[in-house]
Amino acid sequence: MDFAYTEEQRMLADSLRRLVQDEWSFAARRARAAQPQLDTRAWEQLAELGVLGLNIAAEHGGFGEAPASLLPVHLELGRGLVSEPVIPSAAMGAALLAACADDATQREWLPALASGQAIVSLAWQEPGRRYDTEPELCRVRPAADRILELSGAKHLVWHGAAAHAWIVSARDLDDEPVLLRVPANAQGVTVLDTPTLDRARCARIDFDRTPLGADAILAQGPAARAALATAIDWGTAALCAHAAGAMERLLEITIDYLKTRRQFGQPLASFQVLQHRMADMLVAKEMALSMAYVAAAALSEPDPAQRRRMLAAAKLEAARAGRFVAQSAVQLHGGMGMTDELEVGDYFKRLTMIDQLLGDSAEQLAVLEELA
């Protein structure tokens, strides 16, 4: 896979960097995070730039770009700590619908995702089951002619309260997994929206005999497992690029601080021991960036086992490097690094949370051990 930016990708990355610098400054991010509602103006700006439709097919209103295009976009979003639901909706949701939805559903939802008019979020994690992708607590059963009833609970639904629909994994009467498209305004649904450590949002969603039409079923059995795996793969690749972008920007912030802060009449950047630490941080960031390339390449890998291996290794390195770079940045800022007034803390929290999203380090190590 060729990762040299095309002219279009370079123009998009440059435009996105300017937008992020203007609209996702430290103060703007804090103000936006203080509001539980999605900032529709910011979301529309991302849509107008083409970020939301980047990997959606052209016949559905997108640009039909290859998976490699995730890298320049999510690097820039990571640099600005953009917390809007680009990954859960535009990457994961769009990939899942493209993988398993019928033509009518794709024509209805994919153009809306590309334009920013609709947001979908995957509801697959269940309380007490960590990262298990096999549904157990959520059950769907027939209730009447062409009517289904969904009962159960999902938690840690990434930007679940902002979604216009959820793609819910459940188990049917035949004990097979099934993926359902559930409108956010469906009856019998309770949503508990909560902030996360890194100033993003997640939700617990309870379904109490929620009525659904038969057309709510997107996939069943092995097809449902494969579609959910595809969505998680796309989310993981985007998240690795996001982490690399956050590390890159945090490194710049820390270097600027060490050049400005003086001790014993000299800038801190002149002390060799701190230069060594910065060199180690740079190496860690470059390793994470290299593995973000691997993650993007994995999306085009035809062998499922090799694809899982590549993504698990990339996610593991993103988490390891993210912890090291974030913790080192806080230490190099001294006591100031522990205060809420500096944005270094925001990057620390985002990189800490990235380890927990879509499978933590223990989960990725288990995957690598399984595939060894």
Structure commentary:
It is built from eleven helices and ten strands. The chain has 372 residues and is α+β, with helices and mostly antiparallel strands. The strands form three sheets. It has a four-stranded mixed sheet. Strands 2-3-7-6 form a four-stranded antiparallel sheet, with no helix packed on it. Helix 8 (272-298) runs antiparallel to helix 9 (304-332). The longest helix has 39 residues, at 222-260. 44% of the residues are buried.
Bin the helical content.
40-55%
Low-confidence stretches: none
The count of strands amounts to: 10
Radius of gyration: 21 Å
CATH topology of the largest domain: the name is Butyryl-CoA Dehydrogenase, subunit A, domain 3
